[in-house]
Design brief:
The complex is a heterodimer of chains A (272) and B (345). Chain A has 10 helices and 7 strands. In chain A, a hairpin with a 2-residue loop joins strand 1 and strand 2. The relative contact order of chain A is 0.13. The C terminus of chain A is likely disordered. Chain B has 12 helices and 12 strands. The longest helix of chain B is centred in the C-terminal third of the chain and has 20 residues. Chain B is globular and about 65 Å long. Classes of the chains: A alpha/beta (272), B alpha+beta (345).
């Protein structure tokens, strides 16, 4: 680590950052460590004071907190509140933190006690309905994706350090998918949420011939009504659409609209 | 123009003569869900990879002169100050083996803006000037309305254009390079019979177009129908996904972003092709969006293609290839949109 960070000859403060995880697979944090080619530059850019996956030392003196995972237990609310208090900037890292992620699949069921029993049997474990971070604390920045795209995080962190505004693409994945010269998966007979999901992933899944599941949540002004019609035209059922809409939580309100009122399963989804 | 005729097997010989260069051509890309073959342009390494009887490629040849993403320049901080490095990203000539007339005309239209304007674009020019284009005749597809746009045949913008006469190719030669090249294969001057066959072939083809767009007085109609409710109806369908612009052979709108590298010692300026249908296309500093609704954005795409460009260059920015309509999941096609705006649902 060079002693003084500078950009265009101007000294810059090296932010102290901490990485934290609530209920999650910690895969988003692993993504950052995965990138050996740029890891040293990344470590030079910030001073990491808390990162369970990467180091033993821990401190609470951080400027930016990256929080992965969703809130599924009461003690996590307390932990999240403490992190919020310590941090100047709180970043929701990944789909779990932004929308509840895969964890929130259990919110589909009306009876969460039944869910607990199915999964954990008689093992006493405290777990509640899944929430994204923003249900409890102010989130300053969201980084979407399951997992996050490391190139995107590196760009965002660079922007934060040099003081540039952070922008997310507002348009859907189709834009990047076509720019990658892919043939539309609908034409190949596969369902895809690409037309309504926020871009920025560089069409990671669809470039590998996997239909989009919407991990990055809705694009601005997503035209879901039209996509629903397209899904039906291409022979996909409402159940197929629901499976995808509900997978990561970003499309929760869209899923509610699709589900017929009498089959509405999650009675207690927080209204936002 | 010089016309020659050669036997079909000579084409492989022509390919071999050109094979010292990078060759791009239509190749098969599997089948769609209905078993219909799909094609796209790609670099080919063997003559047999070429699918010269292709229907239409999913993407246009645009990316070879106008990449979807291109680094315009890079910057590095040095001990003495800083350096800028510009690379127009042309390393070798490119041979286009088998381009349909619509796509050749599309390049000609791009030239009007990017090559023949007051400030030619060096990144485009570098690639465009280093193209050797062999055109080939096509079979009209249901989505093709090129005949309405006057782009069903190419008058310029290629080196060589081939028309299939059965066992032979009828070749139009437009460049000295193409003439020199053809002198190295066995070809003959067309006989009266072959000329008659060529004329018959092109005439017969012209009867097979099904899709049409009524372009008469279209600029005026568009002016008159600016407030038409037809735009709102199409806007409701539009996904604002940019697919139409990405598959379009003539859409050239772009955005430029500058990024600082992670080491804070380097930076780059990158150009990405954009689409006027994207929600943030007309968003400016301060957050104001001049075209916040999908209807207004879709409308402007049509106004640029069929009105603004016509007023500036006396021709449309659409070649009628129909790719946008074919690729649009919401089934928004220029023939249908223009007919509805004209009030001919």
């Amino acid at each position: 680590m060079s002693p003084q960070l500078s950009y265009l000859g101007v000294p810059l403060a090296r932010p102290k950052v901490g990485f934290f995880e609530l209920s999650s697979c910690e895969g988003c944090q692993l993504q950052l460590l995965n990138n050996e080619a740029t890891l040293l530059d990344f470590l030079n850019l910030v001073e990491i004071v808390n990162f369970r996956e990467g180091m033993s030392e821990r401190a609470d003196t951080y400027d930016i907190a990256f929080v992965e995972g969703s809130v599924t237990r009461k003690d996590e609310i307390a932990r999240l509140t403490a992190i919020r208090k310590n941090a100047k900037i709180l970043v929701a890292l990944g789909s779990c933190a932004c929308f509840g992620g895969v964890n929130q699949l259990k919110n589909r069921f009306r009876d969460l006690d039944w869910v607990k029993k199915e999964v954990y049997g008689d093992f006493p474990i405290e777990t509640m309905e899944v929430h994204p971070l923003k249900d409890f604390v102010q989130v300053d920045l969201e980084i979407f994706g399951c997992p996050i795209k490391k190139e995107e995080v590196e760009r965002i962190v660079t922007d934060l350090v040099v003081g540039k505004a952070v922008h997310h693409p507002e348009y859907p994945v189709c834009m990047e998918c076509k720019a990658n010269e892919n043939i539309c998966l609908f034409e190949l007979g596969e369902p895809c949420l690409g037309p309504i999901t926020r871009a920025g992933c560089d069409s990671w899944c669809t470039s590998n011939r996997r239909g989009c599941w919407g991990c990055r949540g809705p694009a601005e002004g997503a035209n879901f009504k039209q996509l629903e019609e397209i899904m039906h035209t291409y022979g996909f059922s409402s159940e197929t659409i629901l499976d995808r809409l509900e997978c990561f939580g970003g499309f929760a309100s869209f899923a509610d609209a699709v589900r017929s009122p009498n089959k509405k399963t999650p009675a207690r989804r927080k209204k936002s | 123009m010089i016309f020659k005729v050669f036997k079909k097997q000579e084409l492989a010989r022509l390919y071999e003569l050109l094979a010292v260069n990078v060759i791009v051509g239509p190749v098969a890309k599997g089948n769609d869900r209905n078993g219909k073959p799909l094609y796209d342009f790609d670099v080919v390494y063997d003559f047999d990879e070429l699918a010269l009887d292709y229907t239409q490629t999913v993407h246009s040849p645009k990316r070879f002169v106008l990449p979807y993403q291109e680094t315009l320049s890079t910057f590095a901080i040095t001990r003495e100050g800083w350096e800028k490095h510009v690379d127009i990203n042309v390393y070798r000539p490119l041979v286009f083996f088998g381009m349909h007339a619509c796509d050749i005309n599309a390049l000609n239209k791009l030239d009007l803006v990017l090559a023949q304007s007051t400030y030619p674009n060096p990144y485009y020019m570098g690639k465009r000037k280093n193209l050797f284009i062999i055109g080939i005749d096509c079979n009209p597809e249901p989505q093709c309305f090129c005949r309405s746009m006057g782009t069903d045949s190419a008058i310029h913008g290629f080196d060589l254009f081939l028309t299939d006469l059965g066992g032979k190719y009828f070749a139009e030669i437009l460049s000295a390079t193409a003439f020199d090249l053809l002198s190295q294969i066995k070809c003959t001057d067309p006989s009266a019979k072959e000329l008659a066959l060529y004329k018959h072939t092109t005439k017969e083809k012209s009867t097979r177009y099904t899709a049409t767009v009524d372009t008469s007085d279209l600029t005026k109609i568009l002016d008159l129908e600016f407030e038409s409710t037809a735009w709102d109806a199409w806007g409701e369908k539009c996904l604002s996904c940019g697919t139409c612009a990405n598959v379009c052979p003539t859409c050239y709108c772009y955005g430029v972003e500058e990024h600082v590298d992670l080491d804070l010692q380097h930076a780059n300026k990158t150009k990405s092709l954009h689409s006027c249908n994207l929600i943030d296309f007309a968003k400016v500093a301060g957050g104001h969006n001049f075209r916040p609704t999908s209807a207004s954005r879709l409308k402007y795409r049509y106004y640029h293609k069929h009105r603004g460009f016509v007023e500036a260059f006396e021709e449309s920015l659409c070649v009628g290839c129909g790719r946008c309509g074919a690729a649009c999941l919401a089934d928004i096609t220029p023939p249908a949109v223009i007919a509805s705006v004209r009030g001919k649902e």
